[in-house]
Amino acid sequence: MISRRDFLQVSMAAAALTGASGFGNWARLAAQQSLTQDQLLDFDTFGNVSLIHVTDIHAQLKPIYFREPSVNLGVGPNKGEVPHVTGADFRKLYGIADGSPSHYALSSGDFASLAKGYGRVGGMDRVATVVKAIRAARPDALLLDGGDTWHGSYTCYHSQGQDMVNVMNALQPDAMTFHWEFTLGSERVNELVESLPFAALGQNIFDAEWDEPSELFPPYQFFERGGVKIAVIGQAFPYMPIANPRWMFPEYSFGIRDENMQAMVDEVRAQGAELVVCLSHNGFDVDKKMAGIVSGIDVILSGHTHDALPEPVLVGETIIVASGSNGKFVSRVDLDVRDGRMMGFRHKLIPIFSDVIEPDAEMAAVIEEQRAPHADKLAEVIGQTDSLLYRRGNFNGTWDDLICDALLSEREADIAMSPGVRWGPSLIPGDDITREDIWNVTSMSYGEAYRTEMTGEFIKVILEDVADNIFNPDPYYQQGGDMVRIGGMGYHIDVSRPQGDRISKMTLLKTGEAIDPSRTYQVAGWASVNEGTEGPQIWDVVESHIRKMGTVTVNPSNNVEVTGV
Amino acid sequence: MQLTRRETMALGLGAAIITVLPFRANAATEDLIAEFTGGADMAETGITLTAPEIAENGNTVPIEVDAAGASAIMVLAAGNPTPPVATFNFGPLAAEQRAATRVRLAGTQDVIAIAKMEDGSFARASKTVKVTIGGCGG
What we know:
heterodimer, A: alpha/beta, Purple Acid Phosphatase, chain A, domain 2, 5'-nucleotidase,  domain 2, 2 domains, 6-stranded mixed β-sheet, 19 helices, globular, B: mainly beta, 5-stranded mixed β-sheet, 3-stranded antiparallel β-sheet, 8 strands, 14% helix, TAT_signal_bac_arc (chain A), SoxB_N (chain A)
């Protein structure tokens, strides 16, 4: 008798062989200028259930450029495993031709020139077109939003998330989970969640006072689709009060809580769930580890670490689907559920090429409504860029180098620190830098740019602490961001060492001298998790700097030397 | 991660490093455990210690211990200046042998729980709880 795992492996092999996902097959089409919406959406409807996954949209309503990372190191058991494979290695792994649309959508390398050819990606009006097309083929498809939706833009900040709620409501998701939403403050989050016409899920969202499940966020929701009883269990970002300011949502506690996840899986199975889907904001490596510990989850829709994978990853009998970020992708997963078990799947990561996919007129109108009150502010050109501006990567990106330069110059500091977040679209050489562009990489509810004194010793403690949040070999101790970006200082990092022993050779760039542990340095930064942080908002600091520069040129820096890879 | 004595000493040369090294079981906690168990062997199963991987607030970290058939459970925070947290004693009429409390942790360290079973055997569980300065979410 063929085991269920064998069935799933057959599904994996079929996807790889026939290119069910269509990856690698588009190069010729693109060369002929004939890549079409139909090809992007082409999907042989399979089984009896369809899931549609979007995640980490970060309030990007309009098409953008988004460069995937060239450095994304895996440690411990995840060394060399996806999603820790980038650039040419990634293309080789998935059989993606150089210069193809998949190269541009999924990997780094030649980004600026490919961006000019293939154009922008994303846009919620294009996402709406894709969702509607899937619903045309499978009217009862489940649409699930992995969170980080109500954060990341000028309009989102000024409407306190209302613009995204309005747009997502028009898209009609069935359930959602959360991360940055909580940085709107618990009062606002509660208000918005109470207004939602769909489920707000999180088995790991607890009341901090009593350490009991929060009433506002149920752990799971049942759906009856295609004759199948489906349970969707939510998993919010586990480390919100650590990675983001705890004082903004003191009533809530999170954590991975995999023992409670197991209890919820058992509970829904006992109530007759034939398919268990986890809508997760854990981050990919945490989801992989959790899939190996918690039994009975069929599908994990993974968010947080912004990875875009053309095929699911199979852990035991669980498939993990990663759907990228910033509105750049929509995942469709069709499942064959029979006799209370998932027996096979078909999957496609659909890249939202904004010049190929027709915008949905209704959604375009909803988006315009959100943006209209701010149109002049959004469109104001602050400067131009000669360089590719991007953020993603473990150690630095040119956007953060520019932000750090702004902090050093505008705040007269020796050293600048910029948080290693993974959101923020890219700009290509020759682009105008508008106010909207600056907000897209800086907008948050705790953007004050502080200036403070730190000893060399304390700076090292910070770097060691953040490095362990990324390079701890146990994924459960990782928070899923990237390394804090540093301006004005170089250092060496051995990612294979334990905490306290990774960082060395810290050098003050302006003098070339070694950082003195006992000396005090002027440090400027932003996005402090501490309450009462004072300073101008980071977007104003960056705007002022870019205005003075006129045209910015940011060459990729090599101030961080990495070993132990 | 287990540091050898040599590595620990080598690291000890850099004063700044001490503050970020996780505290493991040390001589003081080993003595406390030996006192509790009388030096008996400890099973790795039979006791569950639930604690967060990363503390949301190092000043109040929720933990829970559960050991069916235990007459007492001792909890130690190996890296605190005063490692003993509590010893929970369960009488014969206790419906379950489970206790939850909150502990203050001085830094990243192992929390250790030892159960003394009614049959005189012992079981041990430990978990590393990270206390971090935070920041930088994805």
